[in-house]
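Hi R.,

Here's the input for the magnesium ion complex you asked about:
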Amino acid sequence: MLIKGVPASPGIVAGKAFVLKSEALAIPKYKIPQKEITLEIKRYMDALARTRKELAGIQKKVETELGESYPDIFSAHLLILDDPTLREKTIKIIEENNINAEYAVAQVLEKIGKTFSNIADNYLRERAQDFKDVGKRILKNLLGKKEETLANLNDKVIIVAHDLSPSETAQMDKKNVLGFATDVGGRTSHTAIMARSLTIPAVVGLGDITQKVENGENIVIDGHEGVVVTNPQKSTLARYLKKRKLLAVLEKKLNKLKKAPAQTTDGHRISLMANIEMPKEVDLLERYGAEGVGLYRTEFFFLNRGDIPSEEEQFQAYKYVAERIYPLPVVIRTLDLGGDKFASILETPKEINPFLGWRAIRFCLARPDIFKTQLRAILRASMYGKVSIMYPLISALQELRQANKILEEVKRELKKDKKEFSKDIKVGAMIETPSAAITADLLAGEVNFFSIGTNDLIQYAMAVDRINEKIAYLYQPASPAVLRFIKHIIDSGHRKGVKIAVCGEIAGDINLTLMLLGLGVDELSMGPVAIPEVKQIIRSVSIEEARKIAEKAMSFDSTEKVVSYLKSVKEPLKLLYKKS
Ligand code: PEP
Ligand code: MG
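And here is the predicted structure with magnesium ion in place:
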């Protein structure tokens, strides 16, 4: 059986499934005599204390194993544990109903769970998982149950679970884990982030894989395609193993290009950069031959936590990246919260149209306290490497000028505070709204570079919500509309001497590489694993050929024609395997 999910971390593995059944805890219900109520509350408080100790222990383990720069999920868990609502509501139920602590905790958790499940927001729904994780831990401690653990796996297995809580992943015996497959989750869920960070192949959002797979059953997971095959026939298994082999051969071949430039056969050169979300991911640059970080999404700092990160904390992270990759450059994007990236700490109100709402630079301009703190941290970090600043979701010249004005203010304040920063720090704007695209000539006067954020540009250009599955068929990167926008941005920018990067997902799509090259991009920034393949494609053509291909592709009147032309004119897959 083939089950389709969301590709979360690349790689193909075959092996035995280890199904982590998340057992439903049997919650006892019994009366507590009035005179023993204080004792029952103490029993509850003791369980909280034990839970706190456990969480602090895991937090430490994660810090040691994954580095301090990893998002501090467990601080959020500790905050939940200390949440007065959780504590006080439980105690109130115990006192008012003369009922045992387990039952009271379960009631409070059920109520919180219901509130969360009615919320449409992905990030918030994922936070509900944090509550469940903490709640289960408290209940286990009350019930005196031992934790089911992945700490002592005897064989190499593929973990199949409903969802992997951060604490489960953290305690896992990683040398015996071949891959993950989970029922729930998206590309930004904890499991996906952890899997990428540990470079373990993973597929998430598989629906009910835990119901379909038995413990010990053979399964294959393909983290490139986002599929899981259960109980594969010999021929299927052979096909996947062959694909893995081919990928390994290809990887080996492409590995040799690690130090080679992304240069066409006639010497036209562009830069291939990495998109990162976590400081720790800079380790992948060297492995895939990235020439720097073209997009550092800083939002992850603000998610999954209960407080706003201080200037010092942000400075340390930005400095770590800048210093670690020097002399390679890093483009740090200022906060792009809102839309589907919701951070509860910022208390942004719920909106009907979040993607058209109070997000990204709009939010930052309205909250100069948060914006300035981040700019100070970035500017200070610029002393330790080659740092550029980039604003997300610019939609008008005025907005860009306002952001630059605040940047100048921050520079003046830093000077006054005798804090150093690089004098020639470059500033860029993301072009991801139709209004920015169409006025690119105006915006070009205020920045050193543009980076085209096609993930958003496509959704705004086509009026298609990028996370709505029902209309996903309209989300077409190669549509004549999107291509015309991209061409217009590149031409307008170049006329004003501004460098043009593309940092949306299409930058790593080998079917579109020649198109983007031919249109004249100067830089492509992508998930680092895609770099070797894109480089190989670039190295197999001349710039003249690429220009002709782009010109021809621009002449078609439908996405289908563009796509089939780009697939056939210089078959990308063939180019990958071509001798070079
Ligand atoms: C984009 O919109 O293309 C982009 C790179 O930014 P994000 O995906 O973070 O919105
Ligand atoms: Mg964007």
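One thing worth noting: The mean pLDDT is 89.

Cheers,
M.
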